[in-house]
Protein: Poly [ADP-ribose] polymerase
Organism: Arcella intermedia
Amino acid sequence: MKELKQTLELNGVRNQGGLDRLVHRAADGIVFGKATCETCPNPHLCQLKYENGQYNCVAELQWGTCGYKGTAVVIHEWNRKSSLFEDHSFLSEWPEEPVSRPLKKVFKHPIEYYKRDPKLPLLGMCFSAAGHLPKRKHSELRALITSNGGTYLDSVVSDVDYLISSFTEVMTDRPKIQKAKELELAIVSELLVDRLLQEFGFDQSPYLLAGKLPPIAFAALTDELPQPATDKKSKSGSESLSFDIAAIPKELKFPTATVYKDKNMELFNVLLTQTDIKSGDNKFYQLLLFDKNGKGESFGVYRKWGRVGTTIGGYTVSTPSDFSSALEFFEEQYLDKTGNEWKDRHQFKKMPGKYLPVEVDNSQNTKEQPSEQINENIPCYLDPRVADVINLIFDVNMLTREMKELEIDVRKMPLGKLTTSSIQKGYSVLTEIDTLLKSDNPSKKFLLLDYSNRFYTIIPTDFGTKAPTVIDNFDVLSKKMTQLESLLEIQVASTLLNEQSIVGQHPTDTNYQRLGTKLTPMSKYSREYKIIEKYIANGHDPNYLAYKIKIEDAFIITRPEEPDFTANKHIRPRKLLWHGSRLCNYVGILNQGLKIAPPEAPTSGYMFGKGIYFADRVQKSAPFCYPTKENNVGLLLLSDVVVGEPYTVKKPEYITALPEGKHSTLVLAKKIPDPTKNEIGEDKVVIPCGPCIDSGEKDVFLEDQEYVIYSKQSQLKYLVKVKFTFN
């Protein structure tokens, strides 16, 4: 046994298990050699198993599994420098050159029936792509397929139903094409995808370029499908997991139960997550130790599991009764799921194939509030216009909706309670991805998968039943950066919303008081209001944006001056400039001011460096409000910005420090407000609200100018409520 384990370890093969398994692995390696796949970054980590006619990699890495399936592997000679060969001479007589393994053809199970889901018309189908496509880029095809329920694989393996390509590409010797021909996969025209999005049950042979159509192509349409298997213990019919670290889940039928606290007042209630894109996992596991009656007499352990963003999953309750038994069971479950002892939870180390605890801000626990505070008879003393905008930015339904648009659902995961530390870790992972995308690392493909698993495990993200997206290009990276920026702002809103309310005070008054910023309604007949109205009218082309922007209200913002603004406000010129953002970000912005991206954030996504971006035409800032026809009310900021002597650029340039004597960056563009029509505001601030004219600049790529500052040398001046009317 010891000799077997030694030779297996020497060759990087798993050496755990019974004698039969160890003998089988050693014999297989001696005869056929050590096989490694192209996916694992280190051949010694690779754990390939040969079964059902192909190799499957079962290597468990820190943030996911390799998951490779196929026959394209590298065979290495078995390392014989172990006592096994010294003590058993007959083994040394076996040829050192590995024997070629006879590979069997893998046949897919026939699919007799198929029910088409109009919302997910590609459900159950697996695609890949090779070579140049006439209609779409590969990234666009991937997005189209996965958003319609299909699976998209980068590599060509036997699981693929359709390889999307073209007739020209089929005639080439591309590795993917040759692999598909070897596996007799269906190589089809891109037009088949468009047809499948519309209907099912048609003759697919006209779209076949080479190979054989998969079984699903011949399936008969049906109205009935077998129900997916569920865990027998599953009782959950809930549509969402609402996690509150201090709350007892509604499934527990103990009305006086409480979450157990130790002597350090630490709650024994944890939420664990695990994402593995290769296997399609995006799951959570909740573990809770509870006191049945709150008197310390009887205890139990509650466990809940499922897929993030779905109703898939279940729960179970174990009631060992006495405290020591319940605690022991709780700690056993924690060790089993995380690979860490409960006593070592504050020095947590992520283990391969195991869950990671979500860091939760305990200060934001939901508290029981006296019913008087939400009594509709309590008067609101705010100006109705101020009350309206306060209700808009503190609206929980709005926050939930906007988070869902960012693939976040605050009802399903404690995203409003994620710690700043977790968000910073998320930024750090994105920085690693950014660096990797710019590199020629030969293991880039695998590492991007690993880093994506890490990001989604740290930042729980709602993909529903779809496979998590690999963060493998700058567009997806930018989207995740926006997600984290909004998380930082919604964390502020969540903190304020969860503060103790004031008995006898209307909730809107309370929220305004929490905001810590004064909003004064502007007279709609004042000079300032009329200038803002003109600034909007002259600053956008409805045909360029596909919507018109109309001012509905405006407020003077009064909050403490930013120290950098106070120190630099003598520098001229200062300009009144636009900044747009999602509604869910405004509580954080008005409470804390505009922020510069943290050091942990990657450099990509900030075209001119990490700074605060402004515009002198509203059509440049408005798209960052992300308006829709259904949600067509937004907010824009006008800030007093110290522009000073700008450093002018025409093309993207990542700026970490301005040249000496420069105070900001001005990105030149094709269009500018007519400088001869500027207005001058309070304290001689320039308001570039003139009509649009050609700038006369050559070799510029932006339609409208941008201004970037690298310290908080601006002051929030006006909050402008607008309505977007789509053409």
